[in-house]
Amino acid sequence: MDRLDTLRGPVPPRPHDARAIAALAANPGCERRAVLDAAGVDKDATAAHLGFPAPFGQSAFAITRGNAFEALVKENGCAELLRLLRDLLGLPVESAGYTDLGDMAGDPPAHRRHEHTRRLIDRSAAEADDDGTLYDHPLLRLEIAGHTAYLEPDVVAFRLGGAFHVVEVKSFAVVDGQAEPEKVAAAARQAAVYVLALRTMLEELGHDPLRVSHEIVLVCPENFANRPVATLVDVRRELAVLRRQLARMTRVGRIVDALPPGLTFDLAPGPDGAPARPVAELRDAVRRVDARYAPECLSTCDLCFFCRDEAAGRGSTELLGRQVRDALGGVATVDEALGLADGSIAPGEGQEEIARLLRLAGRVYAEAG
Ligand code: SF4
Q1: Of 62, 99, 110, 150, which residue is the least packed, with the fewest Cβ within 10 Å?
Q2: What is each CA distance from 46 to 56, 129, 274, 333, in whole angstroms?
Q3: 37/106 same-domain check
């Protein structure tokens, strides 16, 4: 891991939260992201120093609305949530218990809170009774390329029959039974991180990890009112991508070995507190690692504006989205695609079929226009 420390420079590794881990699954093919995350580089600070600050951050209104909705779902020992779970999972409200795992004296460090969660989940998993129990504020853990990430899901519900369901409370609205697909996908990716962390915990404790359901409970406000509605979301696909990406990060050594020796994304502060590294040097360092820009990066990765600018500079077909890029397989730039379409560029070896389709599309557009 020495090489990863050199890449990061003399600053502590950036801890991974569930949102950051979930985002790994959003663009699994990107080496740049895999290397920066494995080294624990602060991508937000990197993007800001490069002059392309990340577009994330919720408005104060959205944060207040989100907190108010979560408080509503959880008030009176999660009474409203129990009602929803009873309908969705067949959980008998009268027999469900409520345990606040965050309720510990003092302000214990994360590893002590995690141990507390482990003890109670272990006990709960060992009990064979059919009572439901809601665990609020559990602290879970995942190893990410040698670093420990502590994660706090909104709630874990223990269902009848011994299965655990992760519950994710989100404040985006479900209107007429539909929510914005991108927001549901992001929530599913985040919940998959919790499912994986809880499965890992059960496995370490000697229980069957598959007792943690791949169906998570997504709780959102319905029709812009604050009335919560719960839906089951299958996160198997997100789990598979996440596992692949985490395994890839532990094997990131192969990518790192191919990088120039001494390469670093060092952001150590100078006397004024700002990173001392000249911007041009940092830009060159970041560009040494291949990126795989896709429009999805705009909602998931701090470096999105930097990578988009880089892809635009190359006229890359990546800018048009994964589907178009994959359909144009082997055609690297928009100019090349246009040249193949109007016949001004002769197709290279293996490009005959895509050139034929582009010419056909060009003719259709010309006739329609
Ligand atoms: S924004 Fe850049 S570094 Fe991040 S995932 Fe996309 S291409 Fe990779």
Answers
A1: 62
A2: 14, 51, 11, 27
A3: no
